[in-house]
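Let us work through a complete example step by step.
Step 1: write down the sequence.
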Amino acid sequence: MTHAVALEASGWSVPSATLIWAEREPGTWSFLTFSPATPGIARPIISTTAKTNTHEKALRPVLLFIFPPQNYENSLLAMLSHENCVIPSIALELRIGGRVRFSRLVNIIVLSTLVAGCSAPQPGKEELNVILISMDTTRADHLGCYGHKSIRTPHIDALAQASLRFDRCFSAVPITLPSHTTMLTGLYPTRHSVRDNGTFTVPQGIPTLATILGNAGWRTIGVIGAFPLTRPFGLDRDFDIWNEDFGTRKKQLLPLAFEQRPADRVTRTALRLLEDNPDRPFFLFVHYFDPHRPWEAPALYAKQYRNSPYDAEIAFTDAWIGQLLEGVEGMGLAERTIVILTADHGEGLSDHEEETHSFLLYNGTIRVPLLLSGPRIKPGVIERPVSLADIVPTVLELVGIEPPEALDGMSLLHPAPDDRIIYSESLAGRLQHGWNDMRAAVADGRKLILGTPSELYDVQQDLPEVNDLREVEAETARDLENRLRLAIESVGAPHTLKESFSVADEDIKAGLEALGYVVAEDVVRDWSELGTLVAEDDPRLHLNLIEVQSIARSLINEGNIPLALEIVDAAVAREPEDLKLLRLEVVAHIAGGDGEAAVIYANRMEALGVPDPRDLKLFGMARRAAGDLNGALGYIQHAQVLDADPRLRHLEVELLGGLGRMDEVQVLLDELLQQNPCDRESLRLLGISRRRTHDLDGMEEAYLRMLECDPRDARAHYNLGNVRLERGDLDDAEASFLKAVEVEPSYGTARFGLALVAIDRGDPGSARRLLERVVASEPINSGLGRKAAALLNQLEEDNE
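Step 2: predict the structure and record it as tokens.
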């Protein structure tokens, strides 16, 4: 029995001993029990057992109508008038305390999938849509509705007013991919086996919320904000649509940056996909990455939050979450839609000396917002600890679908068992550096962080975790540690840690290595589920190295090379043979235009005996930055002997073009395009090669071929516009630039192109308006922002 409408029991006293007996066939009986609803929440009534003439068995959850005890007979008859399905001639009795209160032979209407002859109503009949909004890297205490005094998040705050707000929700892991895997499966990482970004994929056979809702008739849509959740890592499985079109993002100094798109593009894409929704319920998963570093909010927000760029990104995201919710309301969908807003993890922001996230388990990185709104959900605040794993069973109960067995999460619509443990972990230290695991448990008002030594905090009164109670409450700490260890050791994960350690693709591994996410297996000292704890390998003792790498990567991507080098130089002086730090030196010097210094550090890496083709590529890039194109070509060709990564061939094309060896360029491009006629990068390089020979017709042909493969390629429309502008075909150039903006409204470079068209037409007023829009929308320190501001100033001077 699975589907029905659960009515609120406000003010009613329903005896928990009430039984409903039904004779399904002569001599075969079953009974159902139910208990009072939780105050403030419309909850279904759960059956416990069914007894027949020969055996007793557990039933799946059953949803029944609640009715006042003083009027059982009339209420029961009302229940039997429901129109879902008809079972003829079933004898039904209502008994209280073993005494028959009501008995009748009726054509009973039953909400059941267990009774022969009756098809259960499909969940889609309920037509409840589900929107799950995930804000990456968002601390709960940096939202207005959670008490932050200096940030304005009016749209999230308004949603909170209409929601159940969970004040103590904990992430299972402060890392994007494993946390979202918990969010979408209802399983802790010990069960779903995804422990880090990039180095793990979601195992086949583990159902996600998309799997379950999709099988029940929902249309499932995912709109992703950044690379860690892209298809190679497996969360897209069973979504009807998984949109990860990052398009023409600002050029970044890869491989240090995640590929991503801003909140405005995420919201616009989500609304466009909802407009295409057929007449059936939908599940929309929306992922906003903006609060994750690097912090590059548009100028309006960056100026408003000059002293807190993190809050600027959250405020910007709030604005576009507001646009999403307004769009849903404008489509007439709001009244039939469940909305959940949460985050995968937070950000340290120097709490407990952790600036970023991933390695430690203090509340700054694992306490996240959780808002739940929708039909029959009364607004309020719940202070008991809950987990992101609870989202899946909660959603399934709200839409009337039975959850899979043995989830770690529990429905938020019911009180938690007294012995429940909320679990969190980080294995990033072990997987990336060979350090200790970090594990944590919340239970009985206390939070234990397992380590050398462990820490114990009062989760109700001490959210900043200032007062360590480990010595004061030693017995409590020992008991919670024993419970935590027992829970870890008895979990029975479907995959061992080593078996689940699998990189989806070598080219992905190449990018993640420079991010510090991928390591060789021999770094991991202990592959057991609960790693050995060694005092000197506690990640809390290595925060300086962690923060140096994270902050330096962000500074490089933000273009602040002098400060990045100052930080990395100091770290390298302490750890002169640390390959990750030496890689940062090479990349930072390349980004800063100092190719000779980049080669010096590349040589130091090479002297350590590193044969990895990814490092050979980096050595080649260093020599290219130093102007030694022949030397760079040698390293790239050597790397191709060890690695068939097509990106190495693309780099070879660029180097050959720089050396003027155009015949060889053409041969390589012909080979690449024969293998894949729609290889976007090869077509881009074809256009560049035609530019080197001043062949405008050839450039136009290359970009038209790109558009044949993907008519929504905004960059191809922009490049085509540039070719036409260079020819002086202003109307055609304008049409191409406008098409680029139509495909991608936030594409500032295309608006800059439109400004150039306006200038060439002698229309400085239109050019100024376009440039002002570019300046307002681009990060202050971006190349495009500076270029647009300079041209705008020039126009103002000319006007004077």
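Step 3: interpret the result. Residues 19-121 form one domain.
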